[in-house]
Protein 1
Amino acid sequence: MAKSKKISRREERKLKNRKDSSQKAKSWAKEWLHALIWALAVVLIIRAVAFAPYRIPTPSMEETLLVGDFLLVSKFHYGPRTPQSIGVPVVGLHIPNLRLPSTRLPGFRDIRRNDIAVFNYPIDEGIPSQKTNYIKRTVGMPGDTLRISDKVLYVNHQPAEVFDTFQSLYFVHPLDGLRINPEQIRELGGVLLNQRGVNRPGEAMLVFMSESVAENVNALGSVDFIQQFLRPEDENLNANSNFRFARGLGSGNPDHMPEVVVPFEGQEISLTSNNIDIYYDLIARYEGNTLEVRNNRIFINGTETDTYTVKMDYYFMMGDNRDNSEDSRAWGFVPDDHIVGRAWVTYFSLDGFVPRFSRVMRSIH
């Protein structure tokens, strides 16, 4: 009996130890779960009202921003938007077609000309916050008059500021009988339109580069001269554009744009059958009206009219790599409620799989 009792106490201690271990494990798991939930909540709050990550996917902003740059976008500068929909953050699940009344909270300052801004791609369907994020330079403010002639952007009838990092497309002509080494172009910072760089002796190459890189390329011993790529004014690319705005501009192309005024809140626009395509997306897509054109007569919300009063401010965005950027020259104005924030700092960068340490924690402006 004594032996049986002794075994029972031993088993009892083992059971107690197991129970204590199980309770400790559950307590540890519960504490970690609470910590993870709080950490996730903090991250979501910071992402919603302060900063958001963004990765540069295309070369439209080179050399200012490079493919593979990882950015922090400040929502503090212009003020965060209150939620525009209900859903699960980060994973992108939302209740479809449910848009909440939204406003922009106060920020440090308003958006300014030449700010590099992240915004929701206007032409996408749906609620702004659920659209694809784009990044461009704000070249036109509400009320600005813009025009492009021979690639030169004019803002309020004056040439716009040009930055050292702006790129455009150049013809690089070699000396007779010589072939240009594409590796020399790449080492100087040029980006070949034909990435293989295969060319015959005496054949010109097309290269994206900034003005300073172009000067260095022009100094190569195999180069005869360089020439900026410029579409002729009578080359009508707008007519075949996929975008209503570009077609509304009339004959022209990205190197030549007729004068337009960037819309602003309270502006009364005169509408005609000739300019309605310029403002169609603004009226119907961004400000939620029904718009019909019948026999050159314009109907907004069922009423015939020849004017429209704009409900919010708009911006004109262009990429710094002007010949390799699909931007407001094609799809038009960016509404204020599509603005996400100001590009703030490059916190990391990859060239393929190789880190660019010189761009880590680098201020963008």
Protein 2
Amino acid sequence: MAHQSRSEDATASLSELPPSAKLVAKTLEHEGELTQPQLADQTLLAGRTVRSALSELEDADIVTSRSSVIDARKTLYSLADDD
């Protein structure tokens, strides 16, 4: 097959990212949708490190973000869907 699936592409992209980004992705895989502060609590990483990891994960199309319906000031992060 010439085409890689989206999950294979994401796995290849993830392998090139720093350990903090891998930890954030794995946490989202296990916990589901979380905010930046929740990710910092779950991973024990500094907020700045979580923000950087999320930025790298979004650039690699591994993570998506959306505004919270309950509180529009909060952003929720989750793993990108496999389509």
